[in-house]
TrEMBL record:
InterPro entries (alphabetical): Cyclase_SnoaL-like, NTF2-like_dom_sf, SnoaL-like
Keywords: Isomerase
Gene Ontology molecular function: isomerase activity
This protein's name: Ketosteroid isomerase-like protein
Top-level taxon: Bacteria
SUPFAM superfamilies: NTF2-like (SSF54427)
Any one GO BP annotation for this protein: polyketide metabolic process
Gene3D superfamilies to which the protein is assigned, alphabetical: 3.10.450.50
Domain spans labelled SnoaL-like: 10-117
Lineage, highest ranks first: Bacteria, Bacillati, Actinomycetota, Actinomycetes, Pseudonocardiales
Transmembrane segments: none
Length: 136
């Protein structure tokens, strides 16, 4: 089942938006810092926001573990912020031009070969610091 993590990572890194979407059930739940919802529309909103803010982003999987219907991944996103970010109130934050290296964890539930739930966790404070967006 860890091959599903390999597939989502490959489609993400290859910029295969449709392939990434198809790894998920139509009613899949997505929970990430600042965004939560269900369905392909929410998933593709997440995709679009990340690809716009960090067009050169690349995910590296360090570990993937499967047990029963649960997949857990420990990964890292490396990217340069060359597009606007969505602020907490939805207003755009201009690109900083800075690079980030963000470790993250994903906990996924799988049914019939597709992901039905993904919860991603990362340190937003660390990311904002790397982007130079925190007051000192």
């Amino acid at each position: 089942m860890t091959d599903l993590i390999e597939l989502t990572t490959r489609t993400w890194n290859d910029r295969d938006r449709t392939g990434y979407r198809d790894c998920y059930a139509e009613d899949a739940e997505l929970v990430v810092p600042g965004l939560a919802g269900k369905g392909h529309e929410v998933l593709l909103d997440f995709w679009d926001e990340n690809m716009a803010a960090f067009p050169d982003n690349h995910i590296t999987v360090h570990r993937a573990v499967a047990r029963d219907d649960v997949l857990v991944e420990e990964s890292r996103l490396d990217a340069t912020n060359t597009g606007p970010l969505a602020g907490p109130d939805g207003s755009p934050i201009p690109a900083t031009g800075r690079s980030v290296s963000i470790p993250f964890a994903g906990i996924h539930v799988v049914r019939d070969g597709r992901i039905t739930s993904s919860h991603f966790y990362w340190d937003t404070y660390d990311m904002l610091g790397q982007l130079g967006l925190l007051e000192h």
